[in-house]
Specification:
Elements (H helix, E strand, L loop, with lengths): L6 E6 L3 E6 L2 E6 L2 H13 L7 E5 L2 E5 L4 E2 L11 H15 L11 H17 L5 H11 L9 E3 L8 E4 L2 E5 L6 E3 L1 H9 L6 H8 L5 H21 L10 H6 L3
Antiparallel strand pairs: 1-2, 2-3, 3-5, 4-5, 6-8, 7-10, 8-9
């Protein structure tokens, strides 16, 4: 049809899909609670976020961000050390902001989820028991009380856009909530441990590296079943299973 932009599928699975049409992202999500959180979180966040063009449930239209994503899990990041440091500074600005009015996940919920996913991984022969046990032990460092801050909740590198070593925006805020600052930093550097020092430098305050490593293990263990069931492969080089193996 004349005048219609090319439609590109950015990501799609059973829960939601994101399409790009020209300079517009169309996010389709059957769970409007997630979209409610995303829209409110972007309005509250003190860092750049996409402009909301319109919302007609189940679709949310956003202006595409300039620049490129910080990188992808399983691939070398094309971004500079300065860009990674800028991502750390953006995370710090978010964590210093007033808390969002809705709570995050409780510590006991996170521990229970970890137990359940570890049992599933072993029972179904997805990973060797010793690998799961070791990473379960490493994850204990993250499962401790923390002072809640405003977290993005899914601050993976594909959600952080940079241009000329500056952050142009952060996308996908549906998991934003009150939570542990270390969790955001861990998700940001998952599979890219070589850039952890850059992020910590940009963050500009003390970071407990054992807690970061604990969240790496927690995230990789609990994400595995969801990834497999939604058509993603955590066993690809540099992805979640390699993150787990690096703890051995």
């Amino acid at each position: 049809m004349a005048g219609v932009e090319e439609v590109k599928v950015v990501v799609a699975h059973d829960e939601r899909a994101t399409l790009r049409v020209g300079d517009v992202f169309l996010k389709i999500d059957a769970d409007q609670t997630r979209t409610d959180v995303e829209v409110e979180a972007m309005a509250l966040a003190p860092i750049p976020t996409p402009q909301v063009l319109w919302r007609k449930p189940p679709v949310l239209a956003l202006v595409a961000l300039p620049g490129m994503a910080l990188g992808r899990l399983g691939e070398p990041s094309p971004a500079s050390s300065a860009a990674w440091a800028a991502a750390g500074a953006a995370a710090r600005a978010l964590h210093d902001a007033p808390l969002p009015p809705w709570p995050g996940r409780r510590l006991d919920e996170l521990a229970s989820r970890l137990d359940g996913e570890c049992e599933w991984l072993v029972t179904n022969g997805v990973l060797p028991p010793d690998l799961v046990t070791r990473n379960r032990e490493v994850a204990e460092a993250a499962l401790r009380p923390w002072k809640p801050v405003f977290i993005h909740g899914d601050l993976q590198i594909t959600h952080v856009f940079v241009d000329d070593d500056k952050i142009t925006g952060v996308i996908d805020w549906s998991e934003a909530a009150q939570g542990d600052a270390h969790y955001d930093l861990a998700v940001l550097t998952l599979g890219h441990e070589e850039h952890l020092d850059d992020v910590v430098t940009g963050y500009g305050t003390d970071v407990d590296l054992d807690v970061i490593r604990g969240w790496w293990s927690w995230r990789s263990l609990v994400a595995a079943r969801w990834l497999v069931e939604h058509g993603f492969d955590p066993s690809l080089p540099g992805c979640e299973f390699d993150v787990l193996r690096s703890r051995m």
